[in-house]
Amino acid sequence: MVRKSHFDPQRVREEIAIAAARLIAEDGLDYATAKRKAARQIVGETRVAGEWLPDNDQIEEEIREYQLLFQGDSQPTLLRRLRVIAVDWMERLAPFNPYLTGAVLGGTAGEHSDVHLQVFCDNPKEVAIYLLNANIQYDVSETRHFAGRGYVETLSFLWRPLNERNADPVGIHLALYETDDLRGAVRADARGRTARANLQAVQALLDGDPVTSFTN
């Protein structure tokens, strides 16, 4: 374990956050994996107490700083492409009440990022039927329920727009929720950001409207 007499916890958290942000931005690691790997790099221990670890908000801020400094020429273009693809699929899935979530919504998405959508309908199996009718092959997995109530079925597939024949395909993940899960307002965090956005809100981001709650 880390000895408090040798390290300043705040400084250690900052260094871990910076290292984790680089791993996420460059290698596409998820937050939990990047945090653990960064902790080993900085502290040199296989297990690090929670008080020494940064939270995801701190890591996210470091990702934004890293992208601004080292990916300023490419990341905005990549982000816009992913949001365009997200809007395309949200329009296709309009009968199922799709919402965008994750890094594509938050603005930190990069070359390793996928599009994560939550859909809400009375019969989630209809989403699978829609994909089958569209000749889209998908994999089935589970995603943790956003409210912590177990797991929900998730359909994942690769997608390349017809006008991007030479581009790499993008991973699309559809988390299937019951309509009742959509009830109640989505609470904003301390900085006024919400965890998901509907088609109108995502389109506003693309159109350049002053929708700051998802990006700042």
TrEMBL record:
The keyword Ligase applies. Keywords: Ligase. It comes from the Bacteria. GO terms for molecular function: ligase activity. This is UDP-N-acetylmuramate--alanine ligase. It comes from Paraburkholderia antibiotica.
